[in-house]
Design goal:
By secondary structure, this protein is an alpha+beta fold. It folds into three domains: about 15-45 and about 170-195; about 55-150, Immunoglobulin-like (Sandwich), CATH 2.60.40.1510; about 200-270, Beta Barrel (Elongation Factor Tu (Ef-tu), domain 3). Helix content is about 35%, strand content about 35%. It has a six-stranded antiparallel beta barrel. It has a four-stranded mixed β-sheet with strand order 1-7-6-3. It has a three-stranded antiparallel β-sheet with strand order 2-5-4, with no helix packed on it. The longest helix is centred in the N-terminal third of the chain and has 34 residues, at about 15-50. It is elongated, with a radius of gyration of 34 Å. The protein starts with a helix and ends with a strand. Keywords: Membrane, Transmembrane, Transmembrane helix.
Length: about 280
């Protein structure tokens, strides 16, 4: 025949099945959203590293921001020029600036494509005006696509290739879902603890060895009818009686009790207000 403590645990478990199930499912959903957000960011980073920084994918008629490195002695965009291997590509230099990550001298400008530019791969070479002809400049590789779908199909990002959306936008969409599910898990956990405490049965959340004894902390306090000097029962996760512990400290919502080291007590075991 089951002990009263064992029966109490079974009754509480049955009463808390719905809340526990929801917490489990929401916890798995939160973990899944975290994984999807991570994979989305990873997809974007891999695509960025696989695509050379000097390659620009455009449609005819578009204008894109471009930049490139410069020798340190160049201080003004007026000292720069460019050569394109096709008519219909124009580069307007805007400013000289320092690199964002590694420093160094860089130029920034806007690459303009004409509407009649045929699809294909082109090169725009940027160089200081005083460079000798044999000295190479900085080449921009421009890929012109016939339509948005062909450009999307060539994307290095799997998410962008198949959905047309930025992988970072996909990651951002998952963030509120992660926050909502984690918040609900927290609220359900508090609800479960409250229901357990009302029945005089709670989980041990901390176990420490000290001076030849166990000190166990749990969420039953004076407002639950547990006070200094009281004896409580310790149960394993299956509801089997393990032994007793005596309350040494008690607050309105929590208590600390001591038990002998001969008992096998771990976090995740239960404390019951009633003895078997």
């Amino acid at each position: 025949m089951a002990s009263p403590s064992h029966q109490l645990l079974l009754t509480a478990t049955m009463d808390l099945d719905q809340a526990s199930s929801w917490r489990k499912y929401l916890g798995k959903a939160s973990a899944l959203f975290c994984l999807l957000a991570f994979l989305s960011i990873l997809d974007g980073l891999i695509a960025k590293f696989r695509e050379p920084v000097n390659v620009f994918q455009v449609l005819a008629g578009e204008e894109v921001e471009v930049n490139g490195p410069l020798p340190e002695n160049i201080k003004d965009t007026g000292a720069l020029t460019y050569v394109s291997d096709v008519r219909g590509l124009a580069l307007a230099f805007e400013t000289i600036h320092s690199g964002y990550f590694l420093g160094g001298n860089m130029w920034r400008g806007r690459l303009q494509t004409s509407r009649g530019l045929p699809p294909g791969k082109y090169t725009v070479s940027v160089r200081p005006k005083d460079y000798p002809p044999e000295k190479p400049g900085y080449d921009l590789r421009v890929v012109v696509y016939p339509d948005p779908w062909s450009r999307q199909a060539s994307s290095r990002s799997l998410i962008k290739r198949y959905t047309g959306s930025s992988p970072y936008l996909a990651a951002a969409i998952f963030l509120p879902l992660i926050g909502a599910t984690m918040g609900l898990v927290y609220l359900l956990s508090r609800r479960i603890e409250s229901l357990q405490a009302a029945r005089g049965l709670v989980e041990i959340y901390h176990v420490a060895r000290q001076e030849g004894r166990y000190l166990v902390a749990f969420g039953l306090g004076t407002r639950h009818g547990v006070g200094l000097g009281d004896t409580v029962a310790v149960l394993d996760p299956e509801g089997h009686y393990v032994g007793t512990a005596q309350v040494e400290k008690s607050s309105p919502g929590d208590s600390v009790a001591s038990a002998i080291l001969d008992l096998d007590i771990r976090p995740g075991y239960f404390v019951s207000r009633g003895l078997p």
